[in-house]
Amino acid sequence: MTSQFEQKVPPLFEQHRAAYLAHARRVAVELGKGGKRITIDEVREAAPPPAGIDPRCMGGVLLRSEWKKVGYLNSGRKTCHGRPVAVFRRREAGE
Questions:
Q1: Could you tell me which CATH number the domain at 4-90 has?
Q2: Which domain of life does the UniProt lineage start with (predicted)?
């Protein structure tokens, strides 16, 4: 079951922050080259989101079919208080 946030906000984020999302996704691809595993924390550090972005939206950067969730790590961001964040790697051809 998805929340109202999950139903309404990500599509609006895609629509109204398309330029930032495209930039963040390019940064993620660079960070993930060579099969390197990355988290959204690394993407945020390399491509800081614009002011006013709800941090829950940031997962949308890596939630595409080209990325595979491979685990979890505790976030290093102070504001996250060590909560788990997903670790991703780019999918290989045929995966």
A1: 1.10.10
A2: Bacteria
